[in-house]
Amino acid sequence: MPPLARRWGAALLIACVTCFILFTSHRNLELARLRFSSSSGSSAIVHDNHETGPESPPPVSIRDRLQKPPQYPVTHMRQLPSGTPSRLPTVQATFGPESDNDRKVRLERQAAVKDAFLRCWNSYRTKAWLSDELEPVNGGRKDTFGGWGATLVDSLDTLWIMGLKDQFYEAVAAAANISFEATSRAEINVFETNIRYLGGFLAAYDLSGDKRLLQKAKEVGEVLYLAFDTPNRMPQTRWNFHDAARGERQVAPDAVLLAEIGSFSLEFIRLSMLTGDPKWFDAVQNIMEALQKQQQKTRLPGMWPVVVDARRQDFGRHNQYTLGAMADSLYEYLPKTHALVGGLLPMYADMYKASMDTAIRYNLFRPMLPDQKDVLMTGMVLVGSENGRRVTQLRPEGQHLACFTGGMLALGGKLVQNDTHVHKGEQLMDGCVWAYKSIPLGIMPEVFHVLPCDSTDHCPWDEEKWKLAVVDEAGWGLTENKENDLHKADRIINYKRLPKGFVSIPDARYILRPEAIESVFLLYRITGRRDLPDSAWAMFEAIDSNTRTELANSALLDVTVKEGKSPMSHSMESFWLGETLKYFYLMFSESDLINLDEYVFNTEAHPFKRLVP
Q1: Which segments of 311-462 does DSSP mark as H helices, in order?
Q2: Which residues hold Ca(2+) (predicted)?
């Protein structure tokens, strides 16, 4: 298949997305942040959003707007589905008796994870209480998500799961006094507020039954619902909170990231289920029905592009398709919403199956590895045309964020009874475990490039081919003098500290991400593979030993260092306590703690009760 004007065409397409990313700066895409702008080198962004000092602008309240009728009222309110939920296929494997030694090892590992959590939690409690984040190196604080205590709310269900009930009820009492009706930040990321705050309150309520938490979830839901008050009821995903407070009219954006508009179904439907108010269900179905209608009409039928036009409801015009950054949780939520509602909304299973048919065909690939391990990774697909025919080009990259895909496919495969999905989910997870083990520090980088195999069935290691690919990816250009090119490759490999199999590592950071352990945990619960606890423990030891500070744990700027420790970026996002350590803890817990046949996790690792017969 001919390439897509490789040197300038792809570069132009990539540059467009770069501009969009730099303009919007998405959390879920803390990774995508600059990775499109260059195929070589490493870009590190350190956010230093101090909003709590004496020079911070005064908070603006949206209370008056909440008490007024909507400017664009819903003309036909969709109602929650009724009927008896289906008995969906069993997800979790059956675990046999545990030996005394295995139990001892497991509980020691679980205790180590809990100790790591408590170190961070106690430092947050004493130095950054009610702020969004603790600065883990200097003990400062910063507000990056509305100033509403993101770490506190994100950690509520982790506290409960770990049995830290005293800390849990102290945190609930503090959270009950947070007002989500006011913030000093002009722009609110609706996606992040939904998954961290609304998701955090809903899960903590589902676990504890504390009605204060449901009241806070409803408060957050009411505020978020205002972002949907547009002519077509599509949300402003980067919502100007201050403009909304002044009563200014708002319209949906004409360029929005797919993940940010397509990841409301779990939280909004669960909130409607718990309150009996269908308006949140109606809001998310308005989005999902539009996406379903255009699913087979995009430039890569079955999937949707990274950037969509919410204002015109055009979800198929752009040409970049991925399961990774910028699109990820839209796909993740399809099988999970099917599970949440007990199959009462068949469209979610249908959309999941159609999207994975396409992704498996175009996005998944086997990388050429020195140990010839049969693993998979998922890359970006660029879609163009030549002579009136559609052509696709795979950009073979690995993303730490995309490691969630292994767990998604395994879970989805179980729910729709597709063993191929489960197997490919295993291979995707194995690819992430390979990446962890292949880096000397023992931690997978944010973004790296590899060489795709010509065949998924047979892929022998070719060191010369790998080295020439390193030169080409670095932009040094291949010549007719192969010996000289191989010499250049050795220089690049040495300078950029590339382990065998890695063609480049454009983003060498580790920001305390959870996606790899998320998939290891899910595959362990789904398959019962006995090697996975040891893999998880190796990951935890590498992460904790390299990110630990006197107070907590910090994101790293470069995991490729071979001597000493990586420099730190002085950041500990709330998902470290809300997701990463929660998954590690559950990995070493009894299998009935948050049983996958009873709960489903949102993209921030908040477990919601499933509707079951």
Answers
A1: 328-340, 346-362, 404-415, 419-438
A2: 603
